[in-house]
Amino acid sequence: MGLKYNASPNVELKANKMIDSILKEYNTTPIENVTVWFKAAAVTKFPKNGGACVKYNEKQIAVFNFTREGKWYACQNLCPHKMEMVLSRGMVGEDMGTPKVACPLHKNTFSLQTGENLNGTLSAISTYPVKIEDGFVYIGFSE
Amino acid sequence: MKTVIVVGNGMVGYKFCEKFVAKETSEDYKLIVFGDEPRPAYDRVHLSEFFENQDAKALEMAPAAWYAENGIELMVNERVADINREEKTITTAKNRDFSYDYLVLATGSSAFVPPIKGVEKKGVFVYRTIEDLEGMLSYAAALKAKNPNAKAAVLGGGLLGLEAGKAVMDMGLEPHIVEFAPKLMPRQLDSRSSQVLQLKLESIGLHIHLSKATNQILGDDAIVGMEFGEDDVLDVEMLIISAGIRPRDELGKSSGLKMGVRGGIVVDHKMQTSDENIYAIGEIALYNQMIYGLVAPGYEMAAVAVDQITGKTDNIMAPEIDMSTKLKLIGVDVASFGEPFMPAAKGHSIIFENKTQHLYKRINVSLDGKRLLGGILVGDASDYSMLHQIYLNSMPIPSDPSQLILPAGDGGASFGSAMDLPDTAVVCSCEAVTKGQVCCSVKDDGNETVKAVAKATKATTGCGGCKPMVTDLVNETLKSLGKVVKERICEHFDYSRQELYDIVKMKNIQDYDELLDTHGKGNGCETCKPLAASLFASIFNETANKQDTIQDTNDRYLANIQRNGTYSVVPRVAGGEISPKQMIAMGRIAQKYDLYTKITGGQRIDMFGAKLHELPLIWEELIAEGFETGQAYGKSLRTVKSCVGSTWCRYGMDESVSFAIEIENRYKGIRSPHKFKGGVSGCIRECAEARGKDFGFIAVEGGWNIYIGGNGGATPKHALLLAEKVDKETAIKYVDRFLMYYIQTAQPLMRTAAWLDKLEGGIDYVKDVVINDCLGIVDQLDKEMQHLVDTYKCEWKEAVENPEIRAKYTHFVNSTAADENIEFVSLREQKMPAPWA
Fold first, then answer.
1. What is the C-alpha to C-alpha distance for residues B340 and B119, in angstroms, rounded to an integer?
2. pTM of the complete model
3. What's the complex ipTM?
4. Fewer CB atoms inside 10 A, N or C side of chain A?
5. Subunit contact A90:B557, Cβ cutoff 8 A
6. Which domain does B380 fall in, by range?
């Protein structure tokens, strides 16, 4: 997957198997499939026009408070490019009307609506529905 | 298959190859090229640039690989010694024989060395090849080490002599020009323009000696002076002879080709010599009883010879060759075109002269006042392209022709636009590209930038003199197609960075959303957000803490994100000076948080592997030990690298470390379009590599030399000289202004080297702005820089002291757990991130 690292022989590679199992954790969840609304944190904990990372069991979910649009978005925190948990630290923005997040590592951008990679051919990221109730942020999961 | 042998791999010889392989029929021929210099053809016209960067590769017409790619056999370092016309073979100095069907002689010229007593002495050079230049450089360096005020003379005040004068200046020697005639550039300029040029050159430090016949060169083994008359002696320790050229026509003589009385191989309008299988082009060809020492006619000859050999025999040399030239000599525009000296019987001259501004313009018009016949421009040749075209195309001129040269706004106006030219007008004479071709390239082939047009048509790729006109043509054509020529930041802002800079400053907008609402559209993106953040920082010295979600991740968390999502921490170690106590403190903290440590290229210590939540804890401890942020994460000043300087070094001329610390503390925290670095060296040995930095100071006898616009990285670039031997205060002032000017005008993510490259007028223009104040803005620049210096604060101190800012340093917003995904493995007793699988 991705770049081959030229490591000294005594360094163990992060097993592909592990990456597969991490990826399997994340599945785009349409709102009608939601079985659990997870109460993540107070609205005030999230920066305006920015994101923060929510822990849900073993999952890491990036949640964005897109104030300019007046909307909230959630997606996997994992960037599929180099498999690092960083998307919540990315900048939000807009690409011809599509809300997006730019990965802080290499500026790969993903649609916050569909998860699709907007400036390349990486696999799409998983997205999740968000709702706000009584000043709290809830993320919807099907498991 | 026929064999064409080209003897000589100079500019014209190369041009022959280029035009030859472009022919469809070129596959029917084998092309073999011999050059006696050790490298492929290079741009001799811009030879003096070698002194600025010592980069022979940059001057190459094409890399060695180009010849192979085009099926040309190139043999450098192999001089052709003989021609056997009967057998149609040549013999090289290595005693190898090759046979030819056609032979093209392009051996060019060598420097003419007048028979003066003592010319063989050490320290006497000619100015012709890169090897000549290398010899000069090492001789000059040895001279300067002995005597920093050494003088060097150039024999010859013509075009090449003045170029050599620039080389002497660049080498840091006191330059003297010695000319036999009573004026400079006697072949191109009349007496008045020559005087204006002399005044200008003297004002920038050249010493000029006219009407001097050199009797002998003084000195035992090496030159120590030149003697003109009995008591007329000039003490110089180096001499560059540039007294004209001699065609290298030995092969013509030895093989019995028809020769000119004073040298040169006679050719006809097909460039054919007296042997129908042998052609001669460039500076050895005697055409119309003339040797043409300019590039454009040489290229034209190459094109004619190519056509003749490949069977397109109707292309012949024009009966009259245009000798018009425009050049920049030591930063001074000089141009002459058509008939520069006009006998009164043939026409009238209109002359504009302003010695206070070192300006001279002369045009010669026909007696009926209807046609332009020629002219001379010194000091400002911006009208040259237009005037030259009017002359070449016999275009009508205004009834009051003085309007052509009078300064605009002074009753005069610039006449016409490039678009008024006929389509057949040749705008690039080096490559023979017409106005029509340029415009078609834009209109029909969709080339919408000067760069694209240059690639498609080759216009501007020769001497580059036509660039302003081609730029006009491209922009005007785009406009005529209804296209807007504009640089915009992204889909959200219809402005260039510089325009947005002015808006933010003039309207005092300090908030990104407000800027987007009032001057942009949509919801922003990862391009315009950090750009706006950089503007707010450069203008208001706002730290990255205030609007953190418009910052790149590094600025948002005030640390450098690394491969596995952890961060590295770099405290400022100004000038690279660090005490044992500070090292112990840093070591203790790095050990406590289990950080990988490494010395950076900028002479400081980088600590890797900090998790997000650890950053404020680490910084709290660093700040308690007296450290402050090093801004290694920002598009801002990184470090000012220094050598140890006169405080310890036995060669040091000044205290480079003290200066580096002072300057690093002055510019720390200043945000700019890209990162920038500095360097201070205590002597010309340059251990701090200051010329590889965006700004650099080098201590010399009598002060500091300032260099700007260098960098390492993907496109390494040596910094260029901004000022010489200035005191520290002046040095700081000039660099203050340069940096502010760069910050205000550069495009996003453009380093100073690229900025300088793109800046019209280059380094000379920067000098004009920051030293001569040609824009009248230095007071403003000084004020703005001082504001940034005065309002610096350590943004990490601000962050650790503010609980609200500190709160963002957690991986999870709803848990204090660490990110389990981060994995380290061991490496040479330290740690590194687990590799990407």
1. 34
2. 0.54
3. 0.86
4. C
5. no
6. 322-416
